[in-house]
Amino acid sequence: MNAAVQPLTARGEHSRAAIFDAALALFQERGYESTTMRAIADRAGVSLGSSYHYFASKEHLVLEFYSHTHQLHLAAIGPLLARERDLAARVRGTVRAVVVTCEPFHDFAGAIFSTVANPASPLNPFGRESKALRDEVIGLYAEVVKGSDTRIAPDIMSELPTLLWLYQMGILYFWIWDRSPGRLRTLALIDETTELIVRLVGLANLPVLRGSRKSALRLVRSIAEGQF
């Protein structure tokens, strides 16, 4: 049996945070590919061995960034999901909270985008290394959908969380390139498209669209599983 993982000491937490902060800064300054673990260790004021003790690679630092922003997102939307039952409001608030919590890291997101977008990269959101967090985000959208007062057909209910995750990825792509003050273009896009999504969900409940609905849901599954 493996020994239990020991919690970090206060000094360990400080070192780990310093390494993480140094990595974010250097990725923005030099780009992801040009930043080395040694440079990160030097900036953080720790040994190279210590850097590898806390993070096995640069990829693990970016995966930590994903996890960090996801936790910020969960904290931001908790009150909204507790009080709101309207589906459009729940989806809109959840996606808006993504870009708001990620805003302090806008430059960093741009710096790593070419690496993340590479299908062969372990940081690609569709990749195996990102599966655990991807499943968490899809699970969050399952909560968003199930907690609403909107009547949704069972087959749509099962696939809608994945569709909303794909929608979030598209919004984040737009946000990375958005240079408008306060990312107002991104926020406006969210407001307009969430209303459209909810209307389409309502229309998809119509019996006459059942065949088209099945085809659309198969397409969503194929895209999410990287089979398209």
Description:
- The chain has 228 residues and is an all-alpha fold.
- It folds into two domains: 8-56, Orthogonal Bundle (Arc Repressor Mutant, subunit A); 58-225, Tetracycline Repressor, domain 2, CATH 1.10.357.
- It is 73% helix and 0% strand.
- It has helices spanning 10-30, 37-44, 48-54, 58-83, 87-102, 106-117, 131-146, 154-177, 184-204, 210-224.
- The longest helix is centred in the N-terminal third of the chain and has 26 residues, at 58-83.
- The protein is elongated, with a radius of gyration of 20 Å.
Named CATH topology of the largest domain: Tetracycline Repressor, domain 2
The figure for the number of domains is 2
* Helix and strand element order: HHHHHHHHHH
Sheet with most strands: none
Structural class, judged by helices and strands?
mainly alpha
Question: What is the terminal separation in angstroms?
Answer: 41 Å
Average per-residue pLDDT, rounded, comes to: 87
Whole-angstrom Rg: 20 Å
Strand content: under 5%
